[in-house]
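>> received
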Amino acid sequence: MTERITVSAAQQNDGPSMPSWVNEDSLTYAQAGVDTAEGARAVDAIKGVVRDTYRPEVVGDIGGFGGLFSIGAAKDMVDPLLVSGTDGVGTKLKVAQIAGEHGTVGIDLVAMCANDILATGAEPLFFLDYVAIGKLKAEAVAEIVKGIGEGCKQAGCALIGGEMAEHPGVMDPDDYDLSGFCVGLVDRAAMLDPAAVREGDVLVGLASSGLHSNGYSLARKVCVEGKTHYELRIEREELGGRSLQDALLEPTRIYVKPVRAVLDACEGAVHALAHITGGGISENLDRALPKNVDAQVDLGTWPIPPIAKFVCDAAHLDEAEALKTFNMGLGMVLIVDAARAGEVEDALSQAGEKTFRVGSIVAGDGKVRYANDGKLYSCEAE
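>> returned
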């Protein structure tokens, strides 16, 4: 039996109002809120940025249904492995949107993916992006993609494809989100593997540029919410003369070129890498360990960026909480054969990196432990 449902006049009046076009004979995509002409203009605006990232292996040009990339380089490898990674920028985007500054978050997007696959020893080959936006504006998208292109150049990978999706009615007009996907290549014999880590290895840290792209839900709550635009832009002595806005939007460092140069120059010296992202040192360094050793991190052996201390102080975080929330000044940690640590540090220095000996590998069960409790902020920046 068919069930009959009746709606009273009162219920009808309480219901949602219908859009103005509901009784029209036809409705265009533009009337629904999606401007394909603006989308085409956005594509034209980013063509030069995309082409500037191309490597010789790129086949074809922007605008196809799929990005083409030759993997001819794999023919010289004994057992080539493709390595993939995907990530986003997270709520750091909200800081960019509040500030109206969108030129660096694309660097963050590439960094989060490229640094992850670097941790296997892979060379990033190509990158794809996805931009979801409430209301498409060609100039705004071009600014975002320009940052993605810059990130790809820093990582040495080609931007071979992407998607711009307009979401009217789902996202606010000025809101947007980013995600990325990176593919790299490594010969299995040269792959970095936690199984190679041994007791006695040393930890060599590479400096972060700030918070990178993690911990921003907390950082925004204690540093951004309730602040005026003036307060976010005012220069602060405790941030080294920078504004809070600029310190928070400092882009994530991309370590691909210096670390890849060291892996080539010091073959076999680096046993594993840890990219320090969400979860901080405590919950990322252990991902590069086998189950029979611990990483002992010596607090006070590297300087803490002013923005990290500023946020931790504002949130009243103790050391343990800080170390599992933010990178606290270390964006990448190399686990290195102790006998060759000096060689690795020299090679990193030649590649433009400043290094810090931040600890060693000791017997244990696959965890991160800390020495020198209470000394996290004791090392002064030079």
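>> The domain at 36-62+79-190 is CATH 3.30.1330.10 (60s Ribosomal Protein L30; Chain: A;).
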